[in-house]
# Entry
Amino acid sequence: MSQSLERGLAVLTALAAGPQTLDQLAQRLGVHKSTAMRLLRTLEAGRFVRREDVHHYRLGSTLFDLAHQALEDLDVRDIARPHLLELGGIGGHTVHLATLEDDHVIYIDKVDSKHPVRMYSRIGRRAPVHCTAVGKALVADWAPQQREQFAEQLTYPKLTANTIDSPERFLTELERVRAQGYAVDRSEHEDFIHCIAAPIRNHRGEAVAAVSLSVPKVLLDFDGLLGLVDDVLRAAGGISAELGWQPTDKRKES
# Structure
């Protein structure tokens, strides 16, 4: 690495802690003030640094633009994969990663169950939002008006005896998901399967995907499934953190 580049990065690292004076930066770099000034002028020309007042410098807008673009370019599937494998290894159950596509969810990754009894699913398969845990997790945090409009446009096919079959019931369920931080599918999509899911958030706190555990009822009863909620939340939180989300960034309740 060239000396100038190394020094420039050191300046940016120093300014990440807050505004600094020319004297402070020169001392940190171990260079004369004239050398530090030349670096600052170069960084300022590219808007990597801006002068806050006569004496202080701070990070400039270019860095924030680059950081934003880097976060936007993160691939949730690549980031999620190690977390999905870890979650699947806990009990050997099926793990899904899903995103929203119009009024359906689409499975974009999967870790297969290690048990002989398992659910049928495949990457690329679509499923209804109203009767899947991942679907509920993806839309529960929307603003009330957006949730209501979405609920009204769904058709609510009755896939099992437990399937939610009206906008009113779906909205009530979303309020429950919103309050508890995770979603469940109590054999609403398939008779012999129940699931739990949690949202994955990006750096803006938006639910961009959801992770779920799907377990045949013959292998684990519902109380046993709920015993794995913390594991699912931990996986979702780990993926979200790598996408830039921090709990303090959560949007205020609508």
In short: The mean pLDDT is 88. The beta strands are 20-21, 49-51, 56-59, 94-101, 104-111, 126-128, 183-186, 193-201, 207-216. The first strand starts at residue 20 and ends at 21. The chain has ten helices and nine strands.
